[in-house]
């Protein structure tokens, strides 16, 4: 189990310090796929960086620590302090853009073995890599190529291969399929799922696509303005969200076969420099009251395994019903046509 | 019936590599497409990268010369043999909206300078008329001239700047707006603002849209017609709701199956042991 204890991650900028992750306490069970979702700037990528242990200027950890729940070669528990030594072997990272992560002037096979763990036995490791690569739907010769000779999907498969080769306990994937087409996206996601099933490791996946989360995650973390607003099993979260933000995030995009009018989320998230008092989501929330604007709701376990930071978590299912009974697309179009006619009469 | 968009025998071949080993890539392979309607329409063009959808958009926008064939928009031949109207006249008929608004606007010029220039040069308005046209166009996208004036692109969010580029495209009152992946750079929670804007502008300004995307869900939401492209060919074309609910071509089916939907899962995990599946 990975334990995050009151993580506060701070960026140092010219304007001063700003907390991109502000007090996240969390327990992540082993061998699951956990999804992290939220709008840009909500702190999801910073949280990933902290979990990966990639903390360096301008990012710093003001408070808290990550306990990874496994021990290193010397039998010491692995925490934020010594996680860097476990990179690749016990924790790995799949970045969004494979093109800017692979060295363009070095063959892929040389990048595979280019770290201290393989010193002295590079040949042996390379033979293993060659045997491992076909599992990911790549020809073994692919590792002899330079990055630009492969397609985007193949490069992303190479990144997955690098991240899974040593069968690490934890794999972090930050928008691993955003740059890819839907058909390739599906194959990469299913590949990740297969590998996870086989190796039993923990995958943490950041994506802005709620569909991707529904397809492959078991638990979900929803972040808003540097805070966790909801944490629950994926099935429960999609069926009956307990935070209005989660509900609105799921409802923000259209789906095929559903002609309900969609409006996205009104407004924009608050600037990290000027946090509103009370609940950070209150200015955009349809359920907000005076209480929300005054008092910040803590992340509470409302039902077993279901955490939500909302004063009115119990009213969210009602809100879902109201949204589902909303106007159809055809009615909206009709309204607009009416409006145009009115304007013309005025003229 | 007005012809909104017509492509006849359109071909585009790119030659890649240098002399001894030139590779020919047929980005457009005999595209024939006719869209006629009395009312403005939104046409979606979907397909994977490399399917030729962006090349088709570039041909319609006169950024790429087709190898053969012609494109007609609202009676004007805009590409291929017999391209008649001058560049300004063309820009009054067809206007583009690009994927990344931060690349579309130079960061060294104010956004309103672009809007005013479109009004004076393309729409040929006098200075006072131009300001009024800019005000109207910005109001149509839910923005105000006083909030845009004197601001540089980096002072806007991606969504706002994309709305400003929609406003710019509206100023000459074009017959057709070609929008190439207009929402893929915008945060998922705010994409619908732009998408709904297209629906409203279709009614209000009587403008047709060619919406190029790989996102079938938003294509389903806004379009009247849809064309599915694969390997330089249009493999399926028809009423958007019909094509996406009852696809005839296997490629359309493949695209539909690959969407991460919210109502059924690719892998059924219900019977698997908790924790592992």
In the CATH hierarchy, what is the superfamily of chain B? P-loop containing nucleotide triphosphate hydrolases
Class from secondary-structure proportions of chain B: alpha/beta
- How would a crystallographer describe the biggest sheet of chain B? 6 strands, mixed
Estimate the mean pLDDT confidence of chain A: 88
The value of Rg of chain B in angstroms is: 20 Å
User: What is the count of helical runs of chain B?
Assistant: 11
Tell me the helix content of chain A: 25-40%
Percent of sequence in beta strands of chain A: 15-25%
Name its key features:
heterodimer; A: 347 residues; alpha/beta; Rossmann fold; 2 domains; 8-stranded mixed sheet; 4-stranded antiparallel sheet; 31% helix; 23% strand; globular; disordered C terminus; B: 277 residues; 6-stranded mixed sheet; 11 helices; 10 strands
Protein architecture, described:
Chain A is of the alpha/beta class and 347 residues long. Helix content of chain A is 31%, strand content 23%. Chain A folds into two domains: 1-90 and 166-347, P-loop containing nucleotide triphosphate hydrolases (Rossmann fold, 3-Layer(aba) Sandwich), CATH 3.40.50; 104-161, no CATH class. In chain A, the strands form two sheets. In chain A, strands 6-7-8-3-9-10-12-11 form an eight-stranded mixed beta sheet, sandwiched between helices. A four-stranded antiparallel beta sheet of chain A has the order 2-1-4-5. In chain A, a hairpin with a 2-residue loop joins strand 11 and strand 12 (306-308). In chain A, helix 4 runs parallel beside helix 5. Chain A is globular, with a radius of gyration of 23 Å. The model of chain A is unreliable at 334-347 (pLDDT under 50). With 277 residues, chain B is an alpha/beta fold. Chain B is 36% helix and 27% strand. Chain B is built from eleven helices and ten strands. In chain B, a hairpin with a 2-residue loop joins strand 9 and strand 10 (233-239). In chain B, helix 4 (111-122) packs across helix 5 (127-140), helix 5 (127-140) packs across helix 7 (158-170) and helix 7 (158-170) runs parallel beside helix 8 (191-205). The longest helix of chain B has 15 residues, at 191-205. Residues 273-277 of chain B have low confidence and may be disordered. Chains A and B meet through helix 5, helix 6, helix 8 and helix 11 of A and helix 8, helix 9 and helix 11 of B.
């Amino acid at each position: 189990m990975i334990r995050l204890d009151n993580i506060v991650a701070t960026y140092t900028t010219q304007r001063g310090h700003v907390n991109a992750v502000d007090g996240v306490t969390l327990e992540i069970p082993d061998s699951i796929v956990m999804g992290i979702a939220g709008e840009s700037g909500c702190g999801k990528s910073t949280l990933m960086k902290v979990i990966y242990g990639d903390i360096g200027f301008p990012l710093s950890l003001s408070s808290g620590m990550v306990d990874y729940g496994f021990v290193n070669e010397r039998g010491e528990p692995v925490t934020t302090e010594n996680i860097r030594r476990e990179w690749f072997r016990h924790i790995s990272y799949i970045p969004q853009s494979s093109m800017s992560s692979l060295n363009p002037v070095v063959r892929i096979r040389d990048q595979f073995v280019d770290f201290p763990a393989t010193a002295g036995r590079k040949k042996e490791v390379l033979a293993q890599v060659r045997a491992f690569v076909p599992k990911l739907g790549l020809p073994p010769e692919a590792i002899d190529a330079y990055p630009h000779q492969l397609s985007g999907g193949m490069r992303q498969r190479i990144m997955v291969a690098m991240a899974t080769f040593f069968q690490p306990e934890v794999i972090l994937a930050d928008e691993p399929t955003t740059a890819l087409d839907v058909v390739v996206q599906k194959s990469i996601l299913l590949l990740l799922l297969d590998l996870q099933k086989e190796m039993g490791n923990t995958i943490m996946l950041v994506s802005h696509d709620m569909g991707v989360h529904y397809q492959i995650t078991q638990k979900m973390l929803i972040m808003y303005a540097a805070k966790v607003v909801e944490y629950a099993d994926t099935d429960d979260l999609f069926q009956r969200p307990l935070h209005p933000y989660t509900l609105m995030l799921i409802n923000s995009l259209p789906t095929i076969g559903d002609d309900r009018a969609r409006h996205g989320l009104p407004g924009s998230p608050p600037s990290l420099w000027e946090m509103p008092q009370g609940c950070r989501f209150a200015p955009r929330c349809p359920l907000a009251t005076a209480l929300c604007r005054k008092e910040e709701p803590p992340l509470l376990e409302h039902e077993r395994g279901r955490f939500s930071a909302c004063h009115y978590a119990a009213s969210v299912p009602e809100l879902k019903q109201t949204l589902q009974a909303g106007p159809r697309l055809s009615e909206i179009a009709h309204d607009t046509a009416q409006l145009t006619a009115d304007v013309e009469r005025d003229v | 019936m007005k012809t909104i968009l017509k492509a006849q025998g359109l071909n585009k071949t790119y030659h890649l590599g240098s002399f001894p080993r030139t590779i020919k890539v047929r980005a457009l392979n005999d595209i024939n497409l006719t869209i006629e309607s009395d009312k403005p329409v939104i046409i979606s063009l979907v397909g994977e990268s490399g399917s030729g959808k962006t090349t088709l958009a570039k041909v319609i926008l006169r950024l790429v010369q087709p190898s053969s064939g012609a494109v007609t928009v609202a009676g004007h031949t805009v590409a291929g043999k017999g391209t008649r109207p001058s560049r300004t006249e063309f820009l009054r008929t067809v206007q583009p909206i690009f994927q990344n608004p931060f690349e579309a606007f130079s960061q060294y010029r104010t956004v309103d300078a672009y809007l005013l220039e479109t009004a004076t040069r393309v729409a040929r308005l006098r200075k006072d008329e131009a300001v009024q046209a800019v005000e109207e166009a910005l109001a149509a996208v839910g923005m105000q001239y006083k909030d845009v004036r004197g601001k540089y692109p980096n002072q806007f969010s991606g969504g706002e700047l994309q709305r400003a580029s929609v406003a710019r495209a509206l100023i000459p009152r074009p017959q057709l707006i070609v929008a190439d992946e207009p929402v893929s750079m915008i945060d998922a929670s705010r994409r619908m603002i732009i998408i709904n804007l297209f629906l409203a502008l279709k009614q209000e300004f009587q403008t047709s849209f060619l919406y190029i995307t790989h996102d079938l869900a938003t294509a389903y939401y806004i379009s009247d017609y849809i064309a599915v492209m694969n390997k330089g060919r249009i493999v399926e074309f028809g009423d958007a709701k019909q094509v996406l609910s009852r696809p005839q071509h296997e490629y359309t089916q493949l695209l539909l199956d690959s969407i991460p939907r919210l109502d059924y899962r690719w892998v059924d995990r219900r019977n698997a042991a908790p924790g592992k599946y």
